[in-house]
Amino acid sequence: MDNDNSIKFCNLLAQMIKEANLSNIKFYTTLGIKKPYFYDILSGKVNPPPPERQFAMLKLLNPTEEQRNLFFDLAAQERNEVPADIAEILKDKELCSELRKNINYKKILKNGDCKNE
Predict the structure, then answer these.
(1) Pick from 19, 48, 54, 96: CA 20 to 30 A from residue 63's CA?
(2) What is the pLDDT of residues 77-110, one digit of tens each?
(3) CATH for the stretch 9-91
(4) How far is it, in rounded angstroms, from Cα 36 to Cα 97?
(5) Which InterPro entries does the entry mention (predicted)?
């Protein structure tokens, strides 16, 4: 799914909380988040929460697949990280080995080439 650059994590989170019929108070108290931090997330004053908190949020929100993917993608984009769901899966060493079999190292290492001239 392509990210719509006009939507931000904070807006998506607010929408998902509303769609889950949760009050903001119920949401942040259930997660154990302090009120000021929660409202800083909702206002976009701080980066999206770390991956562990993202997973906890989604357990409460019960999103659609599309919402879940967008949630992880926006959080990762704003945190400048790999999406939390992908990062979690990449902890599997066997999967990493399989993925590396298909990497074109000549191509990716060429982009970082340092020429000693």
Answers:
(1) 96
(2) 999 999 999 999 999 999 999 999 989 888 888 8
(3) 1.10.260
(4) 43
(5) Lambda_DNA-bd_dom_sf
3: Cα separation from own chain's centroid: 12
Q: Domain spans of the chain?
A: 9-91
Phi-psi region of 96 (alpha: psi -120 to 50; beta: other; left: phi over 0): alpha
> Cβ contacts of residue 31 below 8 Å, gap of 6+?
53, 56, 57, 60
54 in Cβ contact with 83 (< 8 Å): no
- Which secondary structure element, helix H or strand E, spans residue 89, and what is its range? helix 84-89
| pLDDT tens per residue, range 12-46 | 999 999 999 999 999 999 999 999 999 999 999 99
CA distance 99 to 64: 27
Flag whether pLDDT at 3 surpasses 90: no
